Protein backbone atom coordinates (compact mmCIF):
# COMPACT_ATOMS: atom_id res chain seq x y z
CA UNK A 1 0.00 0.00 0.00
CA UNK A 2 1.20 3.47 -0.83
CA UNK A 3 0.03 6.89 0.34
CA UNK A 4 1.41 10.17 -0.97
CA UNK A 5 0.95 13.72 0.24
CA UNK A 6 1.19 16.27 -2.54
CA UNK A 7 1.04 20.03 -2.64
CA UNK A 8 -1.45 20.79 -5.39
CA UNK A 9 -0.71 24.13 -7.04
CA UNK A 10 -3.23 26.69 -8.21
CA UNK A 11 -4.67 25.83 -11.62
CA UNK A 12 -4.04 22.08 -11.40
CA UNK A 13 -6.90 19.58 -11.51
CA UNK A 14 -7.34 16.94 -8.79
CA UNK A 15 -7.18 14.17 -11.39
CA UNK A 16 -4.35 12.58 -13.31
CA UNK A 17 -5.39 13.70 -16.80
CA UNK A 18 -5.04 17.23 -18.12
CA UNK A 19 -8.13 18.96 -19.39
CA UNK A 20 -8.88 22.19 -21.24
CA UNK A 21 -5.36 23.54 -20.78
CA UNK A 22 -5.18 22.71 -17.07
CA UNK A 23 -2.55 20.19 -15.95
CA UNK A 24 -3.43 17.08 -13.97
CA UNK A 25 -1.66 15.41 -11.06
CA UNK A 26 0.49 13.35 -13.43
CA UNK A 27 2.53 16.55 -13.90
CA UNK A 28 3.78 16.12 -10.31
CA UNK A 29 5.43 12.75 -11.00
CA UNK A 30 4.86 9.08 -11.64
CA UNK A 31 2.49 7.39 -9.21
CA UNK A 32 1.57 3.70 -8.95
CA UNK A 33 -1.35 2.63 -11.11
CA UNK A 34 -3.97 2.18 -8.36
CA UNK A 35 -3.28 5.42 -6.44
CA UNK A 36 -6.12 7.97 -6.50
CA UNK A 37 -6.90 11.27 -4.72
CA UNK A 38 -8.81 11.16 -1.44
CA UNK A 39 -11.24 14.02 -1.81
CA UNK A 40 -10.52 16.91 -4.13
CA UNK A 41 -9.39 20.49 -4.28
CA UNK A 42 -10.98 22.54 -7.03
CA UNK A 43 -8.79 23.94 -9.78
CA UNK A 44 -8.49 27.33 -8.04
CA UNK A 45 -7.49 25.87 -4.66
CA UNK A 46 -4.03 24.86 -3.46
CA UNK A 47 -2.42 22.78 -0.78
CA UNK A 48 -2.47 19.36 0.79
CA UNK A 49 -3.98 16.51 -1.20
CA UNK A 50 -3.61 12.83 -0.35
CA UNK A 51 -3.25 10.09 -2.97
CA UNK A 52 -3.53 6.44 -1.94
CA UNK A 53 -4.38 2.90 -2.92
CA UNK A 54 -5.39 2.13 0.68
CA UNK A 55 -9.19 1.72 0.62
CA UNK A 56 -9.39 1.61 4.42
CA UNK A 57 -7.64 4.99 4.65
CA UNK A 58 -9.96 6.43 1.96
CA UNK A 59 -12.99 5.25 3.91
CA UNK A 60 -11.68 6.64 7.22
CA UNK A 61 -11.02 10.06 5.74
CA UNK A 62 -14.11 10.36 3.56
CA UNK A 63 -16.64 8.65 5.84
CA UNK A 64 -15.02 9.21 9.22
CA UNK A 65 -13.58 6.92 11.83
CA UNK A 66 -15.95 5.56 14.46
CA UNK A 67 -18.73 7.77 13.13
CA UNK A 68 -16.58 10.91 13.47
CA UNK A 69 -15.58 12.90 10.43
CA UNK A 70 -12.01 14.08 9.95
CA UNK A 71 -11.22 17.80 10.24
CA UNK A 72 -9.73 19.50 7.19
CA UNK A 73 -8.03 22.82 7.89
CA UNK A 74 -8.01 25.62 5.31
CA UNK A 75 -6.16 28.92 5.30
CA UNK A 76 -8.38 31.31 3.39
CA UNK A 77 -7.67 34.80 2.15
CA UNK A 78 -10.96 36.68 1.95
CA UNK A 79 -11.91 40.04 0.55
CA UNK A 80 -12.75 42.47 3.35
CA UNK A 81 -12.12 42.46 7.09
CA UNK A 82 -14.36 39.98 8.92
CA UNK A 83 -14.81 40.35 12.66
CA UNK A 84 -14.96 37.61 15.27
CA UNK A 85 -18.76 37.91 15.07
CA UNK A 86 -18.63 37.33 11.30
CA UNK A 87 -16.54 34.20 11.89
CA UNK A 88 -19.12 32.87 14.37
CA UNK A 89 -21.56 32.76 11.44
CA UNK A 90 -19.17 30.33 9.71
CA UNK A 91 -19.16 28.09 12.78
CA UNK A 92 -22.93 27.65 12.84
CA UNK A 93 -24.75 25.44 10.34
CA UNK A 94 -25.72 27.31 7.18
CA UNK A 95 -27.71 26.34 4.13
CA UNK A 96 -25.81 26.22 0.85
CA UNK A 97 -26.30 24.69 -2.58
CA UNK A 98 -24.12 21.97 -4.07
CA UNK A 99 -24.89 20.46 -7.46
CA UNK A 100 -28.37 22.00 -7.43
CA UNK A 101 -29.34 20.64 -4.01
CA UNK A 102 -29.59 22.56 -0.74
CA UNK A 103 -27.57 21.14 2.14
CA UNK A 104 -26.92 22.27 5.69
CA UNK A 105 -23.29 22.53 6.72
CA UNK A 106 -22.11 20.90 9.90
CA UNK A 107 -20.64 23.03 12.69
CA UNK A 108 -17.20 24.37 11.77
CA UNK A 109 -14.33 26.13 13.52
CA UNK A 110 -13.08 29.55 12.40
CA UNK A 111 -10.51 32.07 13.59
CA UNK A 112 -8.58 35.06 12.29
CA UNK A 113 -4.94 34.58 11.24
CA UNK A 114 -3.63 38.13 11.78
CA UNK A 115 0.07 37.43 11.14
CA UNK A 116 -0.28 34.74 8.49
CA UNK A 117 2.16 34.52 5.60
CA UNK A 118 1.28 32.00 2.89
CA UNK A 119 3.84 29.20 2.47
CA UNK A 120 4.46 30.09 -1.22
CA UNK A 121 3.62 32.75 -3.75
CA UNK A 122 0.71 32.02 -6.04
CA UNK A 123 1.08 32.26 -9.82
CA UNK A 124 -0.78 34.29 -10.91
CA UNK A 125 -1.16 36.40 -7.78
CA UNK A 126 -4.64 37.27 -6.51
CA UNK A 127 -6.23 40.48 -7.70
CA UNK A 128 -5.24 43.51 -5.67
CA UNK A 129 -7.56 46.41 -4.85
CA UNK A 130 -6.07 49.39 -3.04
CA UNK A 131 -9.34 50.34 -1.31
CA UNK A 132 -10.44 46.86 -0.20
CA UNK A 133 -8.48 45.04 2.51
CA UNK A 134 -7.92 41.30 2.57
CA UNK A 135 -7.82 39.04 5.62
CA UNK A 136 -6.52 35.52 6.25
CA UNK A 137 -8.73 33.20 8.28
CA UNK A 138 -8.48 29.56 9.31
CA UNK A 139 -11.56 27.45 8.68
CA UNK A 140 -11.89 23.83 9.81
CA UNK A 141 -14.65 21.63 8.43
CA UNK A 142 -15.31 17.91 8.76
CA UNK A 143 -17.07 17.55 5.42
CA UNK A 144 -16.26 18.64 1.90
CA UNK A 145 -19.05 19.51 -0.51
CA UNK A 146 -18.25 21.05 -3.88
CA UNK A 147 -16.58 24.47 -3.31
CA UNK A 148 -17.97 24.50 0.24
CA UNK A 149 -15.41 26.83 1.83
CA UNK A 150 -15.84 29.37 -0.98
CA UNK A 151 -19.62 29.22 -0.63
CA UNK A 152 -19.43 29.62 3.15
CA UNK A 153 -17.25 32.75 3.06
CA UNK A 154 -19.35 34.28 0.27
CA UNK A 155 -22.53 33.61 2.27
CA UNK A 156 -21.27 35.85 5.09
CA UNK A 157 -20.16 38.59 2.67
CA UNK A 158 -16.43 37.87 2.42
CA UNK A 159 -15.60 36.17 -0.91
CA UNK A 160 -12.62 33.83 -1.01
CA UNK A 161 -9.63 35.14 -2.96
CA UNK A 162 -7.19 32.34 -2.15
CA UNK A 163 -7.69 28.96 -0.51
CA UNK A 164 -4.93 26.67 0.81
CA UNK A 165 -5.70 23.33 2.45
CA UNK A 166 -3.25 23.29 5.34
CA UNK A 167 -4.11 20.00 7.07
CA UNK A 168 -6.03 16.74 6.96
CA UNK A 169 -6.38 15.40 10.48
CA UNK A 170 -2.98 15.85 12.15
CA UNK A 171 -0.99 15.90 8.89
CA UNK A 172 -0.08 19.46 7.89
CA UNK A 173 1.88 21.10 5.10
CA UNK A 174 4.60 21.70 7.69
CA UNK A 175 5.30 17.94 7.79
CA UNK A 176 6.20 17.78 4.09
CA UNK A 177 9.76 18.07 2.90
CA UNK A 178 8.84 18.52 -0.77
CA UNK A 179 6.02 18.91 -3.26
CA UNK A 180 5.40 15.13 -3.38
CA UNK A 181 6.15 12.85 -0.48
CA UNK A 182 5.45 9.17 0.04
CA UNK A 183 4.24 9.02 3.61
CA UNK A 184 6.45 7.22 6.09
CA UNK A 185 4.80 5.17 8.88
CA UNK A 186 5.45 8.11 11.25
CA UNK A 187 3.56 10.54 9.01
CA UNK A 188 0.78 8.02 8.36
CA UNK A 189 0.16 7.92 12.12
CA UNK A 190 -0.88 11.60 11.91
CA UNK A 191 -3.81 10.59 9.74
CA UNK A 192 -7.00 9.34 11.35
Instruction: Tell me the CATH architecture of the largest domain.
Output: 2-Layer Sandwich
Strand content: 25-35%
Order of helices and strands: EEEHEHEEEEHEEEH
> Counting H and I runs of at least 4 residues, what is the number of helices?
4
Characterize the biggest β-sheet: 9 strands, mixed
What is the averaged pLDDT score? 92
Helicity level: 10-25%
The CATH homologous superfamily of the largest domain is termed Alpha-L RNA-binding motif
Low-confidence stretches: none
Tertiary shape: globular
CATH topology of the largest domain: Alpha-Beta Plaits
Radius of gyration: 17 Å
Question: How far is the N terminus from the C terminus?
Answer: 16 Å
Top CATH class of the largest domain: Alpha Beta
The number of distinct β-strands equals 11
Structural domains: how many: 2
Q: Which class do the helix and strand fractions yield?
A: alpha+beta
Amino acid sequence: MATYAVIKPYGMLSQFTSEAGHPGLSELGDFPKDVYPIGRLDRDSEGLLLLTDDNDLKRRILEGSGGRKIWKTYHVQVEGAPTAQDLHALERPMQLKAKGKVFTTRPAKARLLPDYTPPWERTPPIRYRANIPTTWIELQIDEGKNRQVRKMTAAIGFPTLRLIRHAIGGLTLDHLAGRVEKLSPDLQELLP
